[in-house]
Amino acid sequence: MSFFGLTDPYIWGAYVACILCVIVCCIIGIRVRKDTNKGDDQ
Amino acid sequence: MTDGVSIPIFVGMLVIFAAITILLGYYGYRNTKSNESFLLGRNKTSPVIIGLSYGATFLSASAVIGFGGQAATHGLSLMWLCFLNLFVGLLVAFVIFGGQTRRIGQKLGASTFADLLGKIYSSRGIRFFTAALIVVMMPIYCAAVLKGGVNSLAVITGLEDYYDLILIVMAVIVGIYVVYGGIIAVMYNDALQAAIMFAGMAVILVVTFSALGGVTEAFTSLTNLWSGNAADTGTLPGFNGWTNFSDFGSNEWMLVVTTFLMGVGIGALTQPQLVVRFMSAKDDRMLDRSLIVGSIFMLVIVGTAYTCGALSNVYFMQNDGMLAYPYLKSLGLGVDFIIPQFILEIFSGMTGGDIFVCLFLLSLICASISTISALMHTIGAAGGYDIYTLIRNRRQANVLDSQNIRINRICTAVMMVVVVVYCYLMPSDIIAKATSLFMGMTAAALLPSFAYGLYCKGVPDKRAAIGSITAGTVTYLFWALFINKSSSSFLPICKWFTGNQVLFAGTISYVDALIIALPISIAVMAILLLISRHTARQQKQVVTGE
Q1: Residue B54 in contact with residue B274, Cβ under 8 Å?
Q2: B182 with B27: CB under 8 angstroms?
Q3: Distance (Å, whole) CA B135 – CA B113
Q4: Contacts (Cβ under 8 Å, ≥6 apart) of B498
Q5: Measured between CA atoms, how close is A35 to chain B, in angstroms?
């Protein structure tokens, strides 16, 4: 399997893991922002 | 070095940057009314400021130049460090450690990392040890970052004759805004510097891929560079090319995984200058919201540095007929200069190339001084707040923390001078290794106690914490000074005693001290906690007569 020319899964896996991590961080941040907009003070 | 820097453009950018830096320093000075605002500045932060400041402090010139250069040598395996920076250094740090640190810090009235640990365990000894560790070890890391930034700047601009002047001017500018502006100036300047770094690195990523024919073409060319011969690549046995992971357990694997990936990846959790960022937040929501900015920032900066570092091999091969490591060696330069040289060459002859090279140089300065300023603030606070409070309270039988900003400021200024002196005493090409050494040392000594202190129910066991800190410190120091080849070069005690750089040759000399010291530190803590629990149960049985 090739990912933009990278064939070693240990290498392209690192890129995928990085992007997934950023997505999770953004989801956490956006969920909190929505909660804040609703005025749900915890 | 390629002559590609327009000094007038660079000086113009530098003057504007220095003016804004001083203005933000003045803003910090105006808003620093108390010792609490000098140390934490809680009311002047926002999610964007915290996210950018955390990222800029975390990622110094070490990440861009030091580890970027290592990626050129050891390949894209370093992208796992990018993942660890994001996952451990950001996600785990903010979600698991950040909120709890902020809440406990606020509840106990702690203002620094040493203060927090000391108050969690009600131990002046733990507070003193942590502060002393910061005062003794952090200047090494700080000097490595300062020296790395100034070295690159002097060589790229061709102003090597003015090396001393650049070093002192940079130290004075950072010193002034940290001493007078406190944490508010540090964090606002961090945010400014982070924005410049982001712009500079994003441009470099786009230009690199476009110069090498696109993403797939660039990575395919990098894969095709590997002929199976690792001679003169600066790598160790077990290396399999820049787009393949090294052989499990080989010398190359040990160096990359245990020193670069684990040392820096895990070590981020106990960085005193980063822990203070959590305590600066007003609430947990602010910390969670700063994850958005922080994660995107870190992915772009670190991902670009490591990817472009590895791809520089393709560029140098196509244009200079050599791989990055031997090419720089032929120029009489080390690994830490691979990224600066690559930037100079790739932008030379390009329309607006001068401006981009200057932007990169400015990014480099920003990356250096954002970290140096945070480190100087932390060192100054450890000496001027923690150690001063402990000494004063011992003399006067006082229990209150020092509220004296002036002592903090004097201590920061004195330590800045010490850092400049360190710069002249340190060997070259040590940015990545010095970073790994400091982060590994703090993690081995303090991570188990910090994690246990944050999450234990009831009164934390002081004896277990002291045991863990002692075991982690002693093991780390012994391994770093007598077993590990790369860290023993900092202080060649083993060579003085035995005549050899390390006690044992072979793969073991590439195993980083953290890999041994951290499990021992955790094990000692677990054993002491079990003993305490067992003793308490026995005492209870004696009292109740069961």
Answers
A1: yes
A2: no
A3: 13
A4: none
A5: 9
Question: b vs e for B286-304, b when ≥16 Cβ sit within 10 Å of the residue's Cβ?
Answer: bbbbbbbbbbbbbbbbbbb
Q: Reduced to 3 states, what is the DSSP secondary structure of residue B139?
A: helix
Q: Which residues of A touch B87 (CB under 8 A)?
A: 17, 21
SS (H, E, C) B300-341: HHHHHHHHHHHHHHHHHHHHHCCCHHHHHHHCCCCHHHHHHH
Of A28, A6, A30, A12, give the one whose Cα is nearest residue B87: A28
Q: How far apart are CA B133 and CA B441, in angstroms?
A: 9
* CA pair distance B385, B269, nearest whole angstrom: 22
Domain map (residue ranges) of chain B: 7-440
In this prediction the ipTM stands at 0.85
Backbone CA torsion sign across B329, B333, B338, B340: negative
Segment B123-176, tens digit of pLDDT: 889 999 999 989 988 888 888 888 878 877 777 777 778 888 888 888 888 787
The neighbour count for residue B165, using CB atoms within 10 Å, is 12
The reply to whether B79 touches chain A by the CB within 8 Å rule is: yes
Other CB atoms within a 10 A radius of the CB of residue B409 amount to: 19
pTM of the model: 0.81
Helices B124-157/B388-396 angle, 10° precision: 150
What whole-number distance in Å separates Cα of residue B448 and Cα of residue B121? Answer: 13
DSSP 8-state assignment for residue B246: P
Sketch the domain layout of chain A as residue ranges: 6-37
**Ordered DSSP codes for B261-286:** IIIHHHHGGG-HHHHHHHHH-SSHHH
| Token reading at B480 | 């770093």
Domain B7-440 sits in which CATH superfamily?
Sodium/glucose cotransporter (1.20.1730.10)
Neighbours of B210 (CB within 10 A): 12
Task: Judge contact between B41 and B210, C-beta under 8 A.
Answer: no
Q: Which amino acid is at B459?
A: V
On whether the CB atoms of residues B381 and B112 are closer than 8 A, the answer is yes
| Contact check, Cβ <8 Å, B79/A11 | yes
pLDDT in tens, B167-179: 888 888 878 777 7
Highest mean pLDDT: which range of B165-169, B393-397, B448-452 = B448-452
Interchain proximity A21–B79, CB inside 8 Å: no
Of the candidates B190, B169, B110, B197, the one whose C-alpha atom is nearest the C-alpha of residue B386 is B110
CB contact under 8 Å between B223 and A6, yes or no, is yes
Nearest partner of B183 among B76, B281, B311, B289, judged by Cα:
B281
- Written as six digits, the tokens of B151 are 């070295």
The H or E element that residue B382 is part of is none
- Neighbouring C-beta atoms of residue B437, cutoff 10 Å: 27
Largest CA distance in chain A: 48
